[in-house]
């Protein structure tokens, strides 16, 4: 187990709005501001959802291209991880558009969720196979997004069938409506369900974020924070930037004797190819 902590910043998400927190990025300039604040604070990975300037979520390939190019100019060595989850209601073809840009890494959702009301986040077995095949074809490292035990089981079944290739990296997302709750019991159970040698990140949503960060750091895991998962830095007080959340993880990690992984160290830990100079 590496002592290094990989910090991912999920800087915008697809659902949160500036009405909830005015610092949520919509424009290219706002995306660069938030990505750079997280990167400067210690984030090795930027998890990227795209928005149009009015805040509407989009999986448009060219919008992703503009955002990725702008972020890379400001943060040259950071790992940019586009979402293939998009927003509810999008087709598989829409959601796959960012993979056409051949990013180093992308998210791969491993199960369907009831997000609330009539909203269903659909990820059928065939969709997961299709998305994984695209990533294998293009040399994209998948982060296996698992919101429940059944999602881990699905991912491992597809590994056995040859549709997903090791080394495996999981993102355990807890506290989402329709998924597992964010208790210590949940995190321990899901981490113990992972295969030996897999790496994992925890994403605690809302008020679960800080306690799960403590626990994951003590267990040797990696951490995701950012406006996608939590808008409030403390109860009733909005976060000022994505970087503010990353800074807190850095402080906690160092208190526990863990160092912060650089982007190149993150590539090595995750079994990714070295960055092209």
Q: How is the biggest beta sheet arranged?
A: 8 strands, parallel
**Helix/strand class:** alpha/beta
Order of helices and strands: EHEEEHEHEEEHEHEHEHEEEHH
CATH class: Alpha Beta
How far apart the termini lie comes to 28 Å
> What is the percent of helical residues?
25-40%
Based on CA inertia axes, which overall geometry fits?
globular
Taken as a percent bin, the fraction of beta residues is 15-25%
> Unreliable stretches, pLDDT < 50, 5 or more residues?
none
Mean pLDDT: 97
How many individual domains? 1
Radius of gyration based on Cα positions? 17 Å
CATH-defined architecture: Alpha-Beta Barrel
CATH H-level homologous superfamily name: Aldolase class I
What is the number of beta strands? 14
- Using the coordinates shown, work out and report the CATH topology: TIM Barrel
Biggest sheet strand order reads 5-2-1-12-11-10-9-6
Helices, by number, come to 9
How would you summarize the topology of this molecule?
Layout: E1 7-10, H1 28-41, E2 45-48, E3 50-51, E4 57-58, H2 61-74, E5 79-82, H3 92-95, E6 105-109, E7 113-116, E8 119-121, H4 125-138, E9 141-146, H5 149-160, E10 169-174, H6 184-192, E11 199-204, H7 209-219, E12 222-225, E13 232-234, E14 237-238, H8 242-255, H9 263-269
Parallel strand pairs: 1-2, 1-12, 2-5, 6-9, 9-10, 10-11, 11-12
Antiparallel strand pairs: 3-4, 7-8, 13-14
Helix pairs in contact: 1-2, 1-8
């Amino acid at each position: 187990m590496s002592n290094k902590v990989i910090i991912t910043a999920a800087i915008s998400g697809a659902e949160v709005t500036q009405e909830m927190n005015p610092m949520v990025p919509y424009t290219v300039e706002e995306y660069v501001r938030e990505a750079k604040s997280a990167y400067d604070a210690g984030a090795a990975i930027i998890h990227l959802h795209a928005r149009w300037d009015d805040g509407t979520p989009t999986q448009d390939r060219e919008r992703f291209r503009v955002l990725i190019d702008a972020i890379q100019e400001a943060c040259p060595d950071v790992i940019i991880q586009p979402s293939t989850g998009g927003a509810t209601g999008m087709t598989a073809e829409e959601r796959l558009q960012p993979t056409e840009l051949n990013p180093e890494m992308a998210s791969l959702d491993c199960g369907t969720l009831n997000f609330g009301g009539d909203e269903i986040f659909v990820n059928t077995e065939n969709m997961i196979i299709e998305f994984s095949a695209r990533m294998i074809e293009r040399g994209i490292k998948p982060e296996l997004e698992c919101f429940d035990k059944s999602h881990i089981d699905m991912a491992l079944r597809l590994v056995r069938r040859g549709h997903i290739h090791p080394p495996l990296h999981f993102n355990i997302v807890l506290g989402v409506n329709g998924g597992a709750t964010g208790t210590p019991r949940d995190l321990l159970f899901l981490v113990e369900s992972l295969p030996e040698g897999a790496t994992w990140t925890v994403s605690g949503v809302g008020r679960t974020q800080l306690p799960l960060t403590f626990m994951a750091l003590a267990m040797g895991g990696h951490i995701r924070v950012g406006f996608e998962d939590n808008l409030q830095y403390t109860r009733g007080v909005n976060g000022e930037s994505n970087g503010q959340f990353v800074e807190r993880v850095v402080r906690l990690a160092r208190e526990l004797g863990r160092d912060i992984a650089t982007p190149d160290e993150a590539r090595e830990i995750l079994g990714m190819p070295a960055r092209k100079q």
